[in-house]
Structure formats: C-alpha cells, structure tokens
Amino acid sequence: MKILVAGGSGFMGTAFSKSLQSNGHEVWILTRRTPKGPNQIRWDGVTTKGWGERVNEMDAIVNMTGYGLEHWPWTKSQKKRFLDSRVLPGLALASAIKESTRRPRVFLQISGINHYGLRGEGIADESTPPADDFLAQLTVKWEDATRAVDDLGVRRIVARTAVVLASRGGLFPLMALPVRLFAGGPLGSGKQAMPWIHIADHLNALRFLLENDKASGVFNLIAPTPTSSAEFVRAIAKTLHRPYWFPAPAFLLRALLGEMNVLILEGRYARPKRLQELGYQFQFPNIETALADLIG
Predict the structure, then answer these.
(1) What H or E segment, with its residue span, contains residue 17?
(2) For residues 83 and 226, what is the distance between their CA atoms, to the nearest angstrom?
(3) CA–CA distance, 159 with 6 (Å, rounded to integer)
(4) How far is Cα 58 from Cα 15, in angstroms, rounded to an integer?
(5) Number of C-alpha atoms within 13 angstroms, CB side, residue 269?
(6) CA 291: distance to chain centroid?
(7) Strands, DSSP E only, in the chain?
(8) Contact, 5 vs 29, CB < 8 A?
(9) What are the residues whose beta carbons fall under 8 Å from the beta carbon of 128, sequence distance 6 or more?
(10) pLDDT digits (tens, 9 = 90+) for 134-183
(11) Is residue 145 a contact partner of residue 96, using CB atoms and an 8 Å limit?
(12) DSSP 119-139
C-alpha cells in the first residue's frame, strides 16, 4: 500500500514507518520539520495547504500526531498544546480526505488507553465508556477530530495504545533509570495499573490492523497480562539484578510532579479484547518476556 503517516518523524512515527517499509509498503511522511528526503512532506499541522492533493495518491493514512504527555510541568499552556497538537492535525487530515477525489481505503487514528480513566471497577475493554478526567477527555477530543472520516466510506481504526516499551527512545529508559541507580521501589501504593505494550507488538498490531480488511472501530493496544505498578518495577529490578526496596511516597510525587503525578500514581486495568478476537497473537504477552528482550 501507499501510506501517508502524519507525525511520522517522531519516535513512534519513525519506528512505524520503518516497519511498514520493511514489509513492502511505500511510505510518505507529513512533518513540521525540514524535510530530509523525497518521501517527507512539509505541513503546518493545521491546514491542507501544500499537501492535501497527496491524499488522492494514498491507500492509507495514519495519524500519529500528538505532543508527548511526558513534558513537564502540566501548565495551562502545556495542556492546551497537548490538545491542539492532537485535534488540529486530525481536523486537517479529515478535511483533506473529504476534499479528495480518490479517497484512501483505510484511516488509522492513534489514541490513548487513558480513555477509560485513571481508576474504575473491573478491567476495561473497548466497550467501556470514557471517563471525565483530563486525560480521558483528551483522548475523546483526539478521536473526535477524525470521526468525520467514518461518513466518507473509509475504514477507520482507532488504536488506544498503552505505554510503548522500547530499549531506546520513549519513556522506558527513563522509567528504568531509578532501578539502574539502585533506587527502585513501589511508586505510591504500587497497586495502580501499569498499562504497557512491547514496541514489537505495538508495531506488529498496528500493521495487522491496517492490512486486515475486517478491522474497523476501536482496538486497545495493550499487553494481555494485567500488570500493577509494583509488579512492573519489581520485574525491572529482577531483570537488572537490582534491589527493590525504596518506596516513593505518593505525597512526595504529587508535590514534585503536580497534576502530572497521575501518569505514575494512577492507572486503570484494561485488556485488548477486540484485537485478540480478531486473531492477533502477542509476541510479548507478559512483562517478564518483554523485559528479557529489552534489557535481559
């Protein structure tokens, strides 16, 4: 397929573009940076000017835009950037498809597993309604920005993804750093969910959904084995042969991180129900096998 990836020059966009290319797809990248090759197209992330006509040539479009939530502190202006960097590019992509004379067959929209909230009874699946906290409502607006594609005859996929674990890039090296420095331990109570997915499964699942004509609607991209924060840190410590002892008090993390503390101290369990029902087989279904591959 000929695939246009918006946000393709970031950490995950770069990895997914390479994965697509290695599996025989032709990839073009929409980037706000200076283009570094013939397959990169400059855009402003807001309008269709200068690139909209490229949609007529594409079989698929992938929207991976979004300013990273790890950027601290979560000030009012920072939260607005989180929102604008997700909503405005989505609106532009939906507009380009609407204006096209030849529409793509499939549209892949990235979203977040925080859609289901920071806490709740039971394990959430794709049928669980969204929560009303900031992160959940951010995903709602993110997904709604491209919802118009559903009415244009394009197969639309929404991938609500967990934290992607990679040996280089992303959040994982930072998450493992305290353990490497012999300071690993439970964060707060440690009972909160730690939603994660190995980068190999993340990339393979995204490609699986793009290539499978039966895939449409919402899919949770998260490892199938529920993992608590304490289990996650303890597994890192075991893999690195480091002690697991120093607890980080919740009140201290709240004082240091402000509202951003919810990324560490809160989390709801979720499962990839629809992805598994469609037939996807996880290469790394539990945290032990994932860590053995990443840092073992």
Answers:
(1) helix 11-22
(2) 29
(3) 15
(4) 20
(5) 11
(6) 19
(7) 2-6, 26-31, 40-42, 60-63, 106-112, 155-161, 163-165, 196-198, 217-221
(8) yes
(9) 116, 120, 270
(10) 999 999 999 999 999 999 999 999 999 999 999 988 889 888 999 999 98
(11) no
(12) --SS-B-TTSPP-SSHHHHHH
Domain ranges of the chain: 2-166+195-223+269-284
Contact between 208 and 274 under an 8 Å Cβ cutoff? The reply is no
CA dist 193 and 197 (Å) reads 13
Residue 182 structure tokens: 């012999």
Query: Hey, how many other C-beta atoms are within 10 angstroms of the C-beta on 152?
Result: 14
What is the DSSP code string of 256-273? HHGGGGHHHH----B--H
Helix residue spans in 40-112 (DSSP H): 76-99
CA distance 165 to 233: 13
What residues pair up with 197 in beta bridges, in sequence order? 164
User: May I ask the CATH architecture of the domain 2-166+195-223+269-284?
Assistant: 3-Layer(aba) Sandwich (3.40)
The pLDDT value given to residue 72: 87
Query: Residue 2 pairs with which residues in a beta bridge?
Result: 26
Q: How many CB atoms lie within 10 A of CB 37?
A: 6
Q: What are the Cα distances from residue 19, in Å, to 27, 101, 103, 132?
A: 10, 29, 24, 35
Look up the pTM and report it.
Answer: 0.96
- Residue 193, classed as helix, strand or coil, is strand
Q: What is the pLDDT of residues 77-100, one digit of tens each?
A: 999 999 999 999 999 999 999 999
Q: Where is 274: in which H helix or E strand?
A: helix 273-277
